[in-house]
Amino acid sequence: MSEISKIVPVDIEFQDLNYVIKGRSVKRVLKSINGNFYSGELTAILGASGSGKTTLLNILAGYISTGVTGSIKVNGTPRNMKTFHKLAAYIMQDDLLQPFLNVEEMMMIAAKLKLGDLKSTEEKSATVNEVLTLLGLEKCLGIRTEELSKGQKKRLSVALEMVSNPPVIFLDEPTSGMDTVSAKQCLNTFQTLTKQGKTVICTIHQPSASMLQQFDQVYFIHDGLCVYNGSMTNIIPFLSTLGYECPVTYSPADYIVETVQTVQDSALALSEGIQNGKTNQRDLLKESLSSLLPRLPFSIDEDIDVPIIDAHFPTTFWSQFYILSSRMFLQLKRNKMEIWLQVFNHAVATLIFVLLYYGIGNNADKIVFTYHYFISTLIFFLYTYTMLPVVLFPTELQLLKREYFNRWYDLKPYFLALTLRGLPLMVLLGLAFTSTTYVFTNQPIELYRFVWFSAVCILTAIASEGLGMTIGSVCNLMNGSMLASCIIAALILFCIHGAGYGSQISPIMKVIMHFSYLRVGIVAISNAMFRNRDSMDCVDKQYCYYQDPKRFLQDLGVDNTPCSLYISCLIVFVVVFKASGFLALKYRLTSEFSKIIVNYTYKVFRHR
Ligand SMILES: Nc1ncnc2c1ncn2[C@@H]1O[C@H](COP(=O)(O)OP(=O)(O)OP(=O)(O)O)[C@@H](O)[C@H]1O
């Protein structure tokens, strides 16, 4: 028997399921609903927009847990999320696929991450081919994901999860945006999966009558209540018993949705008639066939066919890191546009800096301009590397969501791979920028000064990337851009405050200013570049105040602290911002983590 046809039947049952959102007002999205979804069946959750379909799917898949009460059972035993995660795959509505990779590469990466280190490459390749053939994608092997049609993309999303052969598949509106033919093809695919004994549950928005015939079970929701639960063929008799006659020209599904919205109290009547989902108007034949399949309780790990190596994941930390790094570097290599844009950005900036500050480096009359050059350089690195993740990370998050939620890998190896991905280009372009501008602005040709200067610039860039990642993880593009601009402005203000009047800066203000890593950077650069230096060139030596650059350092309020201390301080900033980026990402992706923070904050304020 082939790998993917070995399946354990999984039934899902939920009772008295409530979901309450506590925002500005309390909203009860699901109201004590009940239901049973069976293995080997294709189930649709239906209802008007805003009725609660996605919410129910999210709760059943375990994507939402805060604010949920009621019981969810898997094969008769209470759902254990740790085990259930290994049984189920969740394909979200706005699932994005990794760009710049072809179908075969995507599938092999999924296989490497999901099938673990215990299976050979040949075995993984065989599974990939089998899944692709099953989902009708065998001819798309070399096609890049962005060139696939909407239907092919959705099938690829399913194929990626199918690699580990999950017995339960949740899909949020898998046919939205497709024409009827593609939508029916997609549903045919899901029917094929149910024939292997899988439990396939999806939400569907406005399905055609012929599409509905493909479902074994339909579950209608209206305003958080279940208004029908059973087979399509039993809808009309059920409605009839409650006094609602569906006209012959009407699709029963449209009739239910319209009736509950337009006829007063009909939703309550239907909900009572179906006991809010407790009753299931199933086909008797299916019921008796389904009862023949043995159901195992899923309380122990041995029930699952996926090897578990790293407590929760099929592969070790370093395998995950290696696979993810390889994928990221392959994508970076193919994303020529991103590389060229960064090269262009640095080249234009270099040109502007050279034109603005050409040859001034040893000129005491122009020492203020030299200082401007240092500050502008830091601002360039701050701005570029903060804004890049703020702009790009919200999309990256969408890509990350499905893979992380479906337990392909842990966040730590992903974050490490992501951090290292941009580093070579950042260092290369950064050094090209600093060395060119350093030479053309005529700074002292002394290795240690150049090394300090470049080190501060690169560390500023890395810290800024961490800052940008933190903002990009918790904010969307618009809010993130605004927040980043405010933070950048504050960092610059604290950096340049009191320049020229250094002796007048109060000691407290000096301490506060060091919370801006830009300030730490500029102090480090000023020290490295102006201290222990020969007299600078002057046009008029008699009135050349800054001939000894030490005076300039005094006016800037820069004391004699060793440069290495400032570099250490910058490294601390790098660590803090990277850690905050990681925590922000975890907060965004893990509802449990968000819950811990919310509870902790609540406790702190309650005890005050
Ligand atoms: N985070 C949230 N905050 C406030 N209200 C929410 C939140 N999530 C969902 N809701 C509300 O819960 C209700 C159900 O939302 P849900 O997304 O489940 O509907 P749906 O039936 O899937 O709709 P659609 O077909 O348009 O996607 C809606 O009224 C929605 O406004």
From TrEMBL:
Q: Which UniProt keywords apply?
A: ATP-binding, Membrane, Nucleotide-binding, Transmembrane, Transmembrane helix, Transport
**InterPro entries linked:** AAA+_ATPase, ABC2_TM, ABC_transporter-like_ATP-bd, ABC_transporter-like_CS, ABCG_transporters, P-loop_NTPase
What is this protein's record name?
A: ABC transporter domain-containing protein
Task: Give the membrane topology.
Answer: Multi-pass membrane protein
Give a Gene Ontology cellular component term annotated to this protein.
plasma membrane
Q: Does the keyword Transmembrane apply?
A: yes
Q: Which family does it belong to?
A: Belongs to the ABC transporter superfamily. ABCG family. Eye pigment precursor importer (TC 3.A.1.204) subfamily.
Q: Which GO terms describe its molecular function?
A: ABC-type transporter activity; ATP binding; ATP hydrolysis activity
Segments traversing the membrane: 339-359, 371-394, 414-440, 447-471, 477-499, 511-530, 565-585
Q: Which domain of life is it from?
A: Eukaryota
Spell out the Pfam families in the cross-references.
Answer: ABC2_membrane, ABC_tran
**Chief localization:** membrane
Task: Tell me where in or outside the cell this protein is found.
Answer: Membrane
This chain's source organism reads Ignelater luminosus
Pinpoint the ABC transporter domain residues.
12-248
